[in-house]
Amino acid sequence: MVAAVSQWPRVLTPSRLVQIIRREKDPSAALRLLDTAPLRYPSYRHNSLVYSAALDSLLSAEPLPVSAISSLLSRLSLRESCPSPDPLFARAITALSGDPPTALALFVRVLPRSNSPSWSCSFHALLRLLLSRGYLTLALGIVARCAGRREVQFGYHTLNLLLDALCRAGRPDAALQAFSSFKDVCCHPDRDTYRILMRGLCDAGRLDDAYHLLLSMLWRISQKGCDADVVVYRTLIEALHRDGRIADAEDILTRVLLKGLKSPKRRRTFCGPVLSGLNAEEVKQVIDEALVVRGVKSLASYKALLGDLYAEGRLVDAQQMFDEMIKSGFRPTVSIFEDKIGALCREGKADEAANVLSKEMIENGCVPSVRAYNLVMDRLCKEGQSTRAVEYLSRMERQLACVPQKETFTILIDGLCGERQYPEAAQILEKMLRRRYLPTRAVFGNVIQGLCLIGRIFEAVLWLEEMISHGKIPEAEIWTSLTSQVCSVDGAVETLILDVLEHHTVSD
User: Which pTM value belongs to this model?
Assistant: First the structure.
């Protein structure tokens, strides 16, 4: 079948074909354009941008055309004119999260046939996929297979992924072994590495190993100060106190604070905090205050500790630390406000989260981010205030450098459909398509079924046609909702339904 294009250009370039492919709604039609172009223009050759546009079109289809994706990447790997397809393979592997064998086959069989000088993006995408699906042994095998290959470069991201998976699986001994062996491949740990390993050792009750790990970190304090590492120290100190090893907890806290003091006079007069006789909550407050307030103050230490406090749901302690940070002259960052809004939303305090977004961030010189808006709108929708959440969408559109994302529209559509405001959900869906965000099959289905429920069959059929034009195959429930209404609609709508079915049956 020849691809249908309104008008082929006189001279075709890869950038021009990319534009044509991206305007095509149907992924199968986009793939036909890829096949047709070299036949119409014998001197034309695809480049990696063309394959990237075709892959994006295939990845937007539901259900995912696995065979078509594998075929496209196989063709790409055999073309010498398209170097460095590693990011394309990484995107495909990430999208194939529901089909690990196919993702593994792409990395093991197809990628080695390409001329890509680097496989690092694909390797990390596959590693994240396998670990997220629980294939720990297979992931370790892939790491061992790729160790030493010049196409794959290990980094602290690789180490952090492995350590997190091993600690979650209850294998701290293997995590310690991996931590030691990665130094042989010149992979140096970062703060998250120590934090993951420290938490895993403490959760497993291996406090002596955690104690020695922290002692090996003291050089970091001498060179860099406490800063964001305070979250690592507090993990061990709190674990030692819970285990009754109060003297060890006080010793570690005193060592950390002494290392962070640069002034000899302050070091001579320093007196370490006392933890004996305090309950768990009092100990946490003393540790937090000692590490951040009595130590070397910095924005990084405040930011790291506030992130932990918000994640633990300790809103009162976090607010006290937040006020102390402002009093010390540090300006809070956008990420701190995002953590605060997220914590308030998890506690069901939508009004307070909205106040932080609308007033507190502005008063402290921070511009609200897309993530902050999404968190507030999601909480409002879950509390049945979707109409109020839509107002924040209008505010986002008026704000500079704050463009609503696909997630933003999806949150609003799901919220409005949950409150049976289907016409308003259809309006948001229309805005979403105008911004060239492709909704999922579930989003289309919710709107179509909702319009059927309130008797707006004509609009439902139009959205059905729009859904099919984007290559989204309707689920059985959508057809059930439509057919149940056919007998009660007028002849014009029934004719339109039949036309849609006939048109897309013939095109298939």
Answer: 0.83
